[in-house]
Amino acid sequence: MSHPADGTSTAQAPGLKGRLDGYFHVSARGSDFLREIRGGLATFFAMAYIIVLNPLIIGTAPDVNGDELGIARVAATTALVGGVISILMGVVSRYPFSIAAGMGLNVLVAYSLAPKMTWADAMGLVVLEGLVLLVLVLTGFRTAVFRAIPPNLKTAIGVGVGMFLALVGFVNAGFIRRVPDAADSTVPVQLGDGVLTGWPILVFVIGLVVTIALIVRRVKGAMLIGIVVATVVAIIVESTAAVGPMAGDDGEFNPAGWSLSVPAVPTSVADIVALPDFSLIGQFNLFGSFANASVIAVILLLFTLMLADFFDTMGTMVGVGGQAGLLDEKGNVPGAREVLAVDALGTMAGGAASASVNTVFAESAAGVGEGARTGIAPIVTGVLFLLATLFSPLVSLVPFEAATPVLIIVGFMMMTQVTKINFQDYAIGIPAFLTIVVMPFSYSITNGIGAGFISYTVVRIAQGRLKDIHPLMAIVAAAFLVYFAIGPIEGLLGL
After folding, report:
1. Residue 12, in any domain of the structure
2. Is the pLDDT reported for residue 319 higher than 90?
3. Model pTM?
């Protein structure tokens, strides 16, 4: 049997199970089918919030004409595209990476693209971005960039993604919030309102404690069990205390409420099943953006979107792949081309269905934490996403507070890779440090990678060691300089 990273095996059991084992390299990667199924379930519950949250962002933002896509329609296509592309990722790449509409990227589409064009034009630009990324994959450029990154920086990306996930978990649960500030100045975050506020936070803490206890006792399915236990507690709490949502229908803010989904016992069929509306599929205009905005403005928007998507995927792939032990000795993902190709197709599909950019989810690490190592896990996750198109009301029963403890644990697991970084060598240590801290502090995987690439290039130039800078690293560092300076550049060009 060969190294688990390349996934090949000389031994194969007979029958369908044996063929599946051989194709997905289940035994070769030290896994089994039950682990993969558990991993797929854990990943789905860690990602399911996107079915609720993406429509709130994409579905409610007006375009240049004031038109909105609608929450229900975006929810349906979000689940559909996430399901189809996750299954495709599992079958083609055979890695435990699931896909859905990317957070951060959807904000960029809703608040940077849509205000300057129609929704059809904005989604056409997303499709165009996916096409460009696919060309970069097929020409080998995207994979070449991935291989040009120094191993220590790749490790730092994985650690940074772990820190970012942990912060996402704390913030989504409402455990960490922005300090109230009447002047609306730049201030740090803190623990709730200085203390634990409300029943939902207690549910989060219970879920986290239960998950930690199960993890340290090596209980199989610990993360999934933690989510289920916390969800049951949440339903009991809501049925007895009537906590309600954090943001009420009357516009009032309830700091002690549930941050997104309000858990409740289903009382009718409508609380379980709802027919999806797929009418947004195909509602895009590939080159319409060029007719409604200047060519330079559209190119800058396309560049910003593409760079964010490009490195968000790469960072997640390195982070989750490293946690799963699927990287080779140089920190690369064997067969990365297939992963990146499906990711590009996901972006195109997301635009074609008005679900926004679809990308590899860092929450895939939740499945890896359950032992998933192969493409079977995202297939399971994808099937659940497809079922969610019908059972979206049921999916919303799992509140953030019950699902996010998993992200904290996964953040810890990914943080353990930090010992592989040589911080004694400042030329590596400083860029690695900036990569790690900028991701959570700026709430962006892409920003962290950009900070690491630019600082690494600057340090090597300062040392007079230009030969240590791979040409592609220099090109990407220059691209990131443009990315970070988009605002001033647009100002100079009067855009």
Report:
1. no
2. no
3. 0.71
